Structure formats: C-alpha cells, structure tokens
C-alpha cells in the first residue's frame, strides 16, 4: 500500500462527544463551548491496516489540547486513561497514556496540521506535525480505536481535513 492510499477522512461523531462540544462544517470542526475538559471522538473505527488522518488546529490558546486515539467504547478523558494514546499538542508536546506524560515533540501552534498515523497491523500510533514525522509514540494499542481529541478549555477549535 502506498502512502497516498493510506490517507483517510473521518468526521466527529455527534453521538460520541461531551455535551459542551459544538460541531460545525459537516461535523468536521469541533469547539468546546462551555469550558472544562471535553472529549470528541471520530466515527471511523480503526481495526486493521494503516490510517492517516489530518487535523488542523484552527485556534490554539490552551496548554492542553490532546490529539490521538482511544478505545472505541471509551468515555471520559482519554489522556488520563489506559484506553487513550494522546499527543499533547499544547504543553511542550508531551505524550500521555494512563495519566503519565513523556517528552515527545514540540508544542503546536495555530494553523499547524497534526497527522495521526495509526498502524493497526503493528498496533502502533505515531504523529506528524506539518508533514514532519515525529516517530512512533505508542506500541501495543487496543484492537479497535477511534480518533479522539481532549479539550481543556473553550478557546481551542480543531478541524478534520
């Protein structure tokens, strides 16, 4: 499979969002309207093969904007759970799993594009920032995952491209 064949599109699932999330742009854009931690999840269930999904950071003012994947049936805040594998594009570009952070990359800025690369055959997640490969962030992920973003504040807006 060539890299061009692995690009995927997704949309935010209105049935799988925290009540403070407002969707627009045909469910491609998500914004946390009422503050506090909130979760939005994609519709596409990843089970086998390679998936590459791009997310544009339309507005980014908080210290915590977690982008990654979580188990498909998970509810809660992904970065605190063993069921989430997240890249904190805010505070210093750390990665979070099971409530523990590890240095990974750099903070993202407004208009940056974060690509979530999920290899379900290898059970790995990696990320790209503006086309630059940041390397494998996680191995041993769950067998069914969905795109996920944890918002910490009302100031951030993201769009699936």
From TrEMBL:
Q: What are the coiled-coil residue ranges?
A: none
- Annotated SUPFAM superfamilies: Concanavalin A-like lectins/glucanases
Q: What CDD domains does UniProt report for this protein, alphabetically?
A: SPRY (cd11709)
Give residue ranges for domain B30.2/SPRY: 1-161
Q: InterPro entries recorded for this chain? A: B30.2/SPRY (IPR001870), B30.2/SPRY_sf (IPR043136), ConA-like_dom_sf (IPR013320), FBXO45-Fsn/SPSB_families (IPR050672), SPRY_dom (IPR003877)
Superkingdom of origin organism: Eukaryota
Please provide an example of a Pfam family that matches this protein in its UniProt record. SPRY
Q: What is this protein called?
A: Spry domain containing socs box protein
Can you name the source organism? Anaeramoeba flamelloides
């Amino acid at each position: 499979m060539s890299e061009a064949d692995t690009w995927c599109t997704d949309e935010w699932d209105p049935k799988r969002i925290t009540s403070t999330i407002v969707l627009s742009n045909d469910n491609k854009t998500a914004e946390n309207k009422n503050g506090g931690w909130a979760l939005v999840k994609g519709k596409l269930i990843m089970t086998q093969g390679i998936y590459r999904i791009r997310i544009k950071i339309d507005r980014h003012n908080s210290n915590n904007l977690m982008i990654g994947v979580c188990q498909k049936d998970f509810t809660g805040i992904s970065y605190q759970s063993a069921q989430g594998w997240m890249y904190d594009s805010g505070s210093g570009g750390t990665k979070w799993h099971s409530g523990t952070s590890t240095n990974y990359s750099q903070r993202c800025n407004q208009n940056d594009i974060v690509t979530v690369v999920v290899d379900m055959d290898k059970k790995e997640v990696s990320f790209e920032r503006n086309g630059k490969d940041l390397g494998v962030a996680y191995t041993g992920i769950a067998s069914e995952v969905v795109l996920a973003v944890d918002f910490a504040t009302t100031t951030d807006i993201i769009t699936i491209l």
